[in-house]
Amino acid sequence: MPTEHTRYSYKYDELTDEAKAKAVEEVANRFAGPWWDEHDNAAIREVLVYSFAEQLKTAGWDTYGPGDFPGIDSVSVVGFQVGYAPYVSFNGTLTRENAPGLPWHDHADTIELSGGQRDDTTRVHVAQVEALPFECTACGQSADVTYAYDGTAYTAHVRREDGLVYPDEETDADHDAWLLEGLPTYDNAALARLAEAVEEAVRAALTAGEKEYDYKTGAEYAKEWIEANEPDFNEDGTIF
Questions:
Q1: How far apart are CA 100 and CA 94, in angstroms?
Q2: How far out from the chain centre does Cα 232 lie?
Q3: CA distances from 119 to 83, 85, 132 (A)
Q4: What is the domain range of residue 161?
Q5: Staple partner for 66: which of 46, 94, 201, 205, CB 3.0–4.6 Å?
Q6: For 6, how many CA atoms within 13 A lie in the half-sphere containing its CB?
Q7: SS3 for 141?
Q8: Structure pTM?
Q9: Residue 195 — pLDDT band, cuts 50, 70, 90?
Q10: Is residue 236 part of a domain?
Q11: 99 domain residue, yes or no
C-alpha cells in the first residue's frame, strides 16, 4: 500500500529567522542562475548605455532614466559580461555633438570606439579628420595632411596625387625636409587626456553595470521579489 505524506508550505512571514535568511539566499541564487534571462541582460545593457551617456553628458541623460533613455547616437554596446570577469565593449563614433562632456582638443574631431561581442575591451582611437593643406617647398607639389592619434602621439598621413605617404616610410628625398620640418606639432598630452577621459567613462559604465547586477542578484532584490510575489516555502526556507 502506498503511504500518504503530508507536506506543509509556509509564507515568508511564517518562517523562522534562520529560514527567512535561507529563503532570501535561495531566491537571490536563482536570480543569479536559472532565473536570469534576456530581460535581465537588457536591463544591464540599458544601465551601461545610460551610465556611459551620463559621463559623456549626452543629450537626454539628465531627463530620462536607464529604462527610457533613447541611447547615444552612433554608439552601441556590442558585448558585455557582469558577475564574472566583467567587461563592456562599445562600438561607434563619439563627436562633440553626442559627447559634449569630454575635454575635446582643438584638433580632435572624432573618437572611434571599437570592440566585439567576444572582446573584453573597448579600444579608443582619437582621430583628427581635418585636412590641412601644405605645399612642398622643394618641388611645389600640394598635399593634404591629416592626423590620427594612436593613444601616444599623432601620426601624420600625407595624401597627394601619388597616394598615401607616411613620414616614417622612405619618401622622395626632395620631400624629406618638408615632411619632417613642415608638419605642425600638437599637444599630445591634451590628446592623451581626451583618450583617458573616454576610457574612464567606459570604466564608470561598467561599474554601474556591475552594481546593477549585484542589486538584481542580491538580498534586497530577493526580498522585494518575495514581498511582491508571496511564494511558498518549505519550513527550512527552501522554495516549495
A1: 9
A2: 40
A3: 16, 12, 35
A4: 37-216
A5: 46
A6: 1
A7: coil
A8: 0.77
A9: confident
A10: no
A11: yes
**Angle at which helices 188-216 and 219-229 cross, to 10°:** 40
Residue 42 is assigned to a structural domain of this protein: yes
Q: State the virtual CA torsion across 161, 167, 172, 175 in degrees, nearest 10.
A: 80
Per-residue pLDDT reduced to its tens digit, 24-50: 999 999 999 999 999 999 999 999 999
What 169-176 contacts at long range (C-beta under 8 Å, 24+ apart), as own/partner pairs, is 174/136, 174/138, 174/139, 175/136, 175/138, 175/139, 175/141
Label residue 120 exposed, middle or buried (CB < 10 Å: 0-12, 13-18, 19+): middle
Side chain identity, residue 145: V
> In this structure, what are the phi and psi dihedrals at residue 29, rounded to the nearest 5 degrees?
-65, -35
Give the three cell numbers for residue 149: 592619434
**Could you give the residue ranges of the DSSP H alpha helices within the chain?**
17-32, 38-56, 173-181, 188-216, 219-229
Give the torsion sign (CA, 87, 201, 153, 155): positive
Strands 75-81 and 87-95: antiparallel
Q: Alpha-carbon distance 86 to 79, whole Å?
A: 11
Please name the residue that has the C-alpha cell 597627394: 160
d(CA 197, CA 236): 51
Distance from CA of residue 86 to its chain's centroid?
A: 11
29 within a domain of the structure (yes/no): no
Cell 564574472 belongs to: 84
Question: How many domains in the chain?
Answer: 1
